[in-house]
Amino acid sequence: MSTPRTVLITGGNRGIGRAIAEEFVAQGHRVAVTARSGSGPNGTLTVIADVTDAASIDAAFSQVEAELGPVEVVVANAGITRDTLLMRMSDEDFTDVIDTNLTGAFRVVKRASKGMLKAKYGRIVLVSSVVGLLGAAGQVNYAASKSGLVGLARSVTRELGSRGITANVVAPGFIETDMTAELPEETQAMYKKSIPAGRFATPSEVAKVVAWIAGDDAAYISGAVIPVDGGLGMGH
Fold first, then answer.
1. What number of other Cβ atoms are within 10 A of residue 221's Cβ?
2. Which residues are catalytic?
């Protein structure tokens, strides 16, 4: 059992983010989630915030600090997609995805680092995607934003690694969420053929890896990219 920590997860109201929040609650941590709308799972503090707005992130952290204590673990999970082929992708399609998925993570990490530096302790976990290093047609914007998280984590590791702070990337593959459930069955079957494990992951399989990398046993792991993809992205 890891030491109980104050944990903040962005985009914790649904999908993988919600599963991550549930796992931290189950492990006995003090858990807050940010959401643009809706709320996190039972046992969490929900703070309405938008990662594209630095002031709203600052306010969210201040609220969590006041109610649960300084944030010791931050999971940057909030993300959007605007999938379309390169030739049809507008500047806005590209910059919106970068602003949420990459610059949003930067805003969250920057604000979290204040308290972590003071405490000389911190766990930063950035939720990327197998697509970040594997690439995907129709996802130039999304893949660029998700691979950018690797450079972010590795640079933060070099800057803050001597202060008891780690920064790691978890890269999920195909996960059973509302998004994948909407895919036609033949598309799902085609994807499963390309995954050595032959199946999609459950959200909790990703959540358990996130909780582990944020825990006491992973203190000497930093700047790592941990795939949770059933072998889909091997070699990348």
1. 13
2. 142
